Amino acid sequence: MTYSSKTKQSDISLSNCGYSKVLDIISNKWTVLVIYAMENGKIRYGEMLRRVEGISKKMLTQTVRKLERDGLVQRHIIPTVPPSVEYSLTPLGETLLQPMKELRQWGRVNYTQVVEARANYDFAYTTTEEKFRL
């Protein structure tokens, strides 16, 4: 659907936008980090917990379950006593690695400009009184 100023119909929609659907899958900060933890193949839960700085057991469990539900992660149960569990990306999950790497690279190259723009914006929109306190 194209935008028409005469009919004022929207051409951008949360329910129909492919970007918003993808962001719904990967927008959680833990999701991206957990996917990166599985980038090199199977990984055990405890190792993933150690690798992903700051994630709690509860959040890791919720994240891998969500990714498993979305078809991006598969769980492998190893019949030991007690049973061990390994996680890995599915072929579908592996297709996310390249676009995520490109976003990571964009961040490495451009994030300092974002920080500078934020500082300039914040300075421009502070009151004169606040500027003198700085």
From TrEMBL:
- InterPro entries with a match to the protein in the record: HTH_HxlR, WH-like_DNA-bd_sf, WH_DNA-bd_sf
Pfam families from the xrefs? HxlR
Q: Gene3D superfamilies annotated for this entry?
A: Winged helix-like DNA-binding domain superfamily/Winged helix DNA-binding domain (1.10.10.10)
Q: Which controlled-vocabulary keywords does the entry list?
A: DNA-binding, Transcription, Transcription regulation
- Show the GO MF annotations: DNA binding
**Sequence ranges assigned to domain HTH hxlR-type in this UniProt record:** 17-115
The organism's superkingdom is given as: Bacteria
The name this protein carries in UniProt is: Helix-turn-helix transcriptional regulator
